[in-house]
Design a protein that fits this description.
By secondary structure, this protein is an alpha/beta fold. The chain has 2 domains: about 80 residues, Alpha/beta knot (3-Layer(aba) Sandwich), CATH 3.40.1280.10; about 80 residues, 3-Layer(aba) Sandwich (Alpha/beta knot), CATH 3.40.1280. It is built from 5 helices and 6 strands. A 3-stranded antiparallel beta sheet has the order 1-2-3, with helices on one face. The chain has a 3-stranded parallel beta sheet with strand order 5-4-6, with no helix packed on it.
Length: about 170
């Protein structure tokens, strides 16, 4: 998938976001804002509640993502031309939604009381472009999992663990 831009990162993040050992997280919606060629922006939305006919292997997701990005349908996956900025505005207007931007220099997540309805904004291996980060911080609080830069998919795994721990109390 490396020849398809950084869809490998999208695949890794989808798997980390939506999959448990033998189940799909029905309460998770994964959004990716793809700004690379050929036709940016492209908003990819994957809803755990309606996603099916999937496995966790890279070949399956390479096929699914290529098909969906090529205009075909797959249960639980949609695409549209919503920009990152427009998507963030929609999320910010949702009642009770708290938005966080993950960044090493943010406030420690251990100091945050995570709400039930949260949106986490993560960049790729380079991070968010400064203008995008500044825009996001109009609606979000910057938080950190620590001073180490982790892979995006690893961050998602940690966030799922923290959210699961919160709901299991």
């Amino acid at each position: 998938m490396h020849d398809a831009g950084r869809l490998d990162i999208v695949y890794e993040c989808v798997v980390a976001s939506l999959f448990l050992s033998h189940a799909i997280r029905k309460n998770v919606v994964f959004n990716a804002s793809l700004s690379g060629p050929p036709t940016p922006p492209l908003h990819l939305r994957i809803e755990g509640a309606t996603l099916h006919d999937v496995r966790t292997d890279q070949q399956t997701w390479e096929r699914i993502l290529r098909n969906v990005l090529g205009g075909q349908n797959h249960p639980g996956i949609t695409t549209d031309k919503t920009s990152f900025e427009a998507l963030l505005k929609i999320k910010a207007k949702a009642s009770g939604t708290t938005i966080y931007v993950l960044e090493e220099k943010g406030k420690s997540i251990s100091e945050i009381e995570l709400e039930e309805d949260v949106v986490f904004v993560l960049g790729d291996h380079v991070g968010l472009p400064k203008t995008v980060e500044n825009f996001a911080l109009r609606y979000a609080q910057k938080i950190s999992l620590g001073k180490q830069p982790y892979l995006a998919a690893s961050c998602i795994t940690v966030l799922n663990y923290l959210m699961d721990s919160k709901t299991c109390r």
